[in-house]
User: Fold this.
Amino acid sequence: METHSKKMAEVKLFRTWSSRFALRIVWALKLKDVQYDTIFEDLSNKSPLLLQYNPVHKKVPVLVHNGKSVAESLVILEYIEETWKQNPLLSEDPHERAAARFWAKFGDEKVLPSIWEAFNSEGKEQEEGIVKAKENLKYLEEELKGKKFFGGEHIGFADIALGWLAELENVFEEVASMKVIAEDEFPLLSEWKRTFADAPIIKENWPPRDKLVTKYQAFREANLLNKAPK
Amino acid sequence: MAKNDVKLIGAWPSPFVLRARIALNVKSVEYEFLQETLEPKSELLLRSNPVHKKIPVLLHNDKPICESLIIVEYIDEAWASGPSILPSDPYERAIARFWAAYVDERWFPAMKGILGAQDDAARMAAVGQVTEGLVLLEEAFQKISKGKSFFGGDHIGYLDIAFGGFLAWIRVTEGMGGIKLLNETKTPGLLKWAEKFAADPAVKDVLPETQKLAEFSKIIIAKLRAAAAAKAK
Assistant:
């Protein structure tokens, strides 16, 4: 007969099943082999704990470590990196660290919004959106020259931050009937997507694709409806 | 280190450039300040920051580093022997980074909202948002400073620099609207903090003079209002 300790794990992650930001934290914790408990949130009915741990933004992900909460996925990634030093996600070299942080930020502030814009459009507007998205993606393609991952030989901070491109972006392309990251135009990025998606730990933790398709189909329909008639 | 090992591409009115300058001063790093007029942007800027074409850009031994907060962290790491900019404890670092992100992603857009407001109603709404943000930052200041002068404790740190970069713009906005964004009632801690920050040796020679910035701001306001008007169509 086994007796399990009722003591709660030191590390808790508040997430939703689909959040691409929370997925970064799952990857980072698992890559560092950190044990943690997951609390799944229903964002339409946020738990009192979530509101207590992230009163400013009331969002996921939130990491709670020994009762102290950290919010904002890139901030959480840095915290994880500094707290659990095994399998480092960042180089020791300050310039390379700055570069990784730069690309993570670029992904969130430029790449994601431009692809999202194209996703929520159709016809000519979508074509124009795709052109803009590709302008951003060209920089990522350039950055991958001579590298397996953005982090070099191993998955790093920027790979994790950009990881949504390896799976969710495929969902966007399918749902919106668009091709953004074409093999001939983005050979390195296309290869990176496959390598990253197939990497151990990464591949075991993707949210179910069919559920994502359904979710984003609904988003797109609603967003297209909301747009002002031309 | 030879002086030209470190160059900073920037412009005196920019709060983001100011962050980098303060960080370099904290570490007593000698650097060449390359002032941009931005109209047109210099070849060096376009080459060093092709992705965003924005200032500040730090050039350390000719290698560029972009994005002001990333530059501040870089400065902290590259000149590790100088006074620390980020706290040493990972949790405290996370708190500092969290609030710096808040300043950039929530609070600063609201500030731009005041300057770009088309009419009084829009301005009042933006002032409301900025004030709400300042109340949150006041709370954060009380918790983080633990009774000391700065977010960083006895000395200015990452969050002081991240938020403090905007101090001159806060003053200009107050002057423009005849409002007190930092005040005894809602933000007593930040009010005192502002005085100390402005007087800090790493800050006082690079913080823009309020009057000079107010003159300059007229250009920015015109641009922001034009952008807001275009968006509203």
